[in-house]
């Protein structure tokens, strides 16, 4: 019998019990008693995308297996699974537990084939979009981060619950936000694309310590540092540390003459990280005060909310036709989205006609404000790596470049 993921089991199981096999990690195991003082075990299993709670009663074969099972262990769980209509959840009449082999554990940790492909594609998109950043300081910072922490990022969740709460979920969240940011910059060409894309990459990097899964498991440990400081200050410290690393490289010798100044670039990036929760009551030490900071906050919120909704449709209770039970923290009951209209109709694409070049607001090299790089032929001249602070009051302009677009240390 082929092993299913927990998500696949939800799709396959029906109201009548049938035999299925899953591979999962036993996250927790607790012995409890019924109202009549009979013992039973409550087990929570987790895999790359989902979780499942089962109960082993004292008159079942599973009860004996639970006596020797260990929390955090990896098991093959075979049993008669069915959908419990009363609780709208998976259940099993009886089941058995058998430890997984090391090879089976490695396969389980990698996730389903679909998940592996999706996360690999998302990470490749992140690498590509970082390579497309024109400002050499932000591009170098992003590439240095991926070199240092890319492996850890690929096993970090975007949250403990609610959205992208799975191993590698942060990669999915950041990649989708980056793709959205790039498209928003097409619609709003006055935004600083380099800064916004970099802000997306770094906004949640503190979660590499707050929400990182164990190297061999699906459990997300709690740490003293993340509880006392949280991911926003940790992320700002990591950016400062990476920035200091770059100042020691030969490339940084020419940063003094770049415009906007390196001090302002770093300051604006730190502001995006600090303000991305949007309000003080939601944990940001400062509210968004630049166009890119506002854009980042809404892109983050949009991706989180949509992901919560799409996942909720698969798991929550149907209250009536097309109406589903509320899922926290969404504000109300969910309604089935309207199906897209399918048609062979292909609209004619008509290019806009402008009476003058000044009316053309499309993103081109000709209508982006140019900034002097200080050297000949567009190359930065040599200088000190740390320019004098000159923060000013204006939004950070785009970095203008002649370059072609490019196709586990603890923080405390």
Give a short overview.
This protein has helices spanning 6-12, 61-68, 102-110, 113-131, 136-153, 169-187, 193-202, 207-210, 224-229, 231-247, 262-275, 291-315, and strands at residues 18-33, 39-46, 51-57, 74-84, 89-99, 318-320, 323-324, 334-335. It has 412 residues and is α+β, with helices and mostly antiparallel strands. The chain folds into 2 domains: 6-109, Nucleic acid-binding proteins (OB fold (Dihydrolipoamide Acetyltransferase, E2P), Beta Barrel); 112-378, no CATH class.
How is the topology of this model organized?
Blueprint: H1 6-12, E1 18-33, E2 39-46, E3 51-57, H2 61-68, E4 74-84, E5 89-99, H3 102-110, H4 113-131, H5 136-153, H6 169-187, H7 193-202, H8 207-210, H9 224-229, H10 231-247, H11 262-275, H12 291-315, E6 318-320, E7 323-324, E8 334-335
Antiparallel strand pairs: 1-2, 1-4, 2-3, 4-5, 6-7, 7-8
What would you report as the Rg, rounded to the nearest angstrom? 26 Å
Q: Name the helix and strand elements from N-terminus to C-terminus, one letter apiece.
A: HEEEHEEHHHHHHHHHHEEE
Question: Which segments are poorly predicted (pLDDT under 50) over 5 or more consecutive residues?
Answer: 362-389, 405-412
Arithmetic mean pLDDT: 84
